DNA sequence: AAAAAAGTCAACCGCGAAGGT
DNA sequence: TACCTTCGCGGTTGACTTTTT
């Protein structure tokens, strides 16, 4: 007996998510919390497999996500962590609040890798390219970490184009959201509603009402400021990343355009 | 202005781990 | 202990965008 596929491929929609689908998924999770992902699409009225829903939520819709390029400091941290941990993107992402493993993996492959190669460093071993083979056979984790630190300064000098964001390895400092992940805000919509009201967001906003109401799913129609884009969501995701002591840093970047 | 090439990143796939029965 | 289900991870793909020719 083989492994059951995560979904039967017939009747399951694939490809890019539409605004409508996002809306359904968000409203479902905010009102019901995260439950069994396999059941989510059915309960939320989506023609997607559970896996796809989980991925969409964790990589894109989660309210505590940062958007935009990694800052120089974040990049440096990624390099250090990669030297220590290798391609364990989820472990690396855990040290960068608001960043997903997918995002870091993409950034590594598209930006950091090239920078390191340009600088003559093997991105796989974190050793100089010329003797990377020989070096890798006798290198230690500590050595790699130390070496990666050596070129951090150069890296930051070469590319300071990224915006600066407050960086902490402690996710609790970064986000004022209730603990995300397997518990916290995405488990308890009340926490989310409370948090939103505490942060000066008026609950008069019609699109917020659905989160605390007992409306059936699907009744959010017309309550969200949906205009066919997810721009509003980006704004509220940025709100999610501002802790009480960093409001002035990240909170308003999206609105003044400096984040993108 | 158009075509080609390169870059970016959201989404998919398959596997392994964890947990339940 | 074996089997099954679910979830999460890392690698990869491919659609879309941007840059170059």
What can you tell me about this protein's structure?
The protein is mainly α. It folds into two domains: 17-64 and 180-238, no CATH class; 72-158, no CATH class. The protein has helices at residues 19-32, 40-44, 50-61, 72-85, 89-94, 101-118, 132-138, 141-150, 152-158, 171-174, 189-198, 206-212, 231-240, 247-250, 253-256; strands at residues 121-122, 127-128. Helix 4 runs antiparallel to helix 8 (141-150). The protein starts with 18 loop residues before the first helix and ends with a helix. It binds a DNA duplex (21 and 21 nucleotides) through helix 3 and helix 6. One of its GO terms (cellular component) is nucleus. Residues 127-189 are annotated as: Disordered. It is found in: Nucleus. One of its GO terms (molecular function) is transcription cis-regulatory region binding.
